[in-house]
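::Encoded backbone::
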Amino acid sequence: MAHDIPYDGSRPDHRASRYLELMRDWEALQDAGAGWLANASNLVALLHRGLGFWWTGFYLLRPTDGTLVLGPFQGPVACTLIHPGKGVCGACVERNEPILVRMLIGFQATLLAVA
């Protein structure tokens, strides 16, 4: 399986083949009878191990107030709730659009600065 093979993301040829391997593995791992939570958890584990990310996971939008609630993840502990406008993810909710942050340190609303 792709998640058991060392990954070098700096090599474009390696990156392309890894994505194909991960897609194949993900197709094999999905289980319609298990429900979204089990499938999301397996997807996070596959991507985390397969791509060597520091943190991989989902935040789920609570529609009543726009708060992001921590979902399945792997990596260091994370904020359980992110309110609109707090950090990069909260700013995305507030603006209702994705934000590309090239240098997190310079972003005004990072949770590191406001937590």
